[in-house]
Amino acid sequence: MRIEFKPPCAAEESNLPIQANEINLQEHIINMMTVYGIPQCSTVKKTRDWLDTRGLAYLFHDYKKHGVPETLLDAWIAAFGWETVINRRGTSWRGLSETTRTAMDAASAKVEALHNPSLIKRPILVTENTTLIGFDPESWHKALS
Q1: Distance, CA of 69 to CA of 113 (rounded, Å)
Q2: What is the average pLDDT across 53-59?
Q3: Which of 17, 24, 40, 69 has the most CB atoms around it within 10 Å of its CB?
C-alpha cells in the first residue's frame, strides 16, 4: 500500500481537537516504514513495486516535492558515511565539478545533497529498527522479515 508523505499544513498544526481514530492513524503512520527517493528513479520504481507485491505498507517521501529531511541526512551520513549516502555513479555526481568531487567530505556532501537531492543514493528505507540504503531484494527481505 502506497501512502504519499505530505508535510502538515498550518491548519493541521493548530490546536484543533483530534479524534481517537486520528490518533490511532497517527501512531500507525509514525511506526510505518518510509521510503525516501524520487518517483521517476528506476530503482525507486522497482523498490515500490517490490514492496507493493508483498503487501507491505509504507510512506513515500519524494525528495523533489518535500526536500531532504536535514536531521535524517545528518544521521545517514553519520551512520553510513557520505561515500555510501551519496550516489557517486549517477549523472548528478558527474555533473559536479572535479574540484567539488575531489574535495567532498561529510560536510560538503550534506550541503550538496540538500541543494540537489538527486545526489542521494536511492532509495533509502527507514523503519523503527533499521535503515537500508539502495535496493537489494535479498537484504530487504531479511531486514523486513
Answers
A1: 11
A2: 93
A3: 69
Strand, coil or helix: 50: helix
Q: Are 3 and 62 within 8 A, CB to CB?
A: no
Q: What is the pLDDT of residues 92-120, one digit of tens each?
A: 999 999 999 999 999 999 999 999 999 99
Query: What DSSP string describes 55-117?
Result: T--EEEEEHHHH---HHHHHHHHHHH-HHHHB-TTSHHHHHS-HHHHHH--HHHHHHHHHH-G
How far is residue 66's CA from residue 6's CA, in Å, rounded to a whole number?
Answer: 8
Write phi, then psi, for 54 (nearest 5 degrees): -90, 0
List residues with catalytic annotation: 41
Check: CB of residue 121 under 8 Å from CB of residue 134: yes
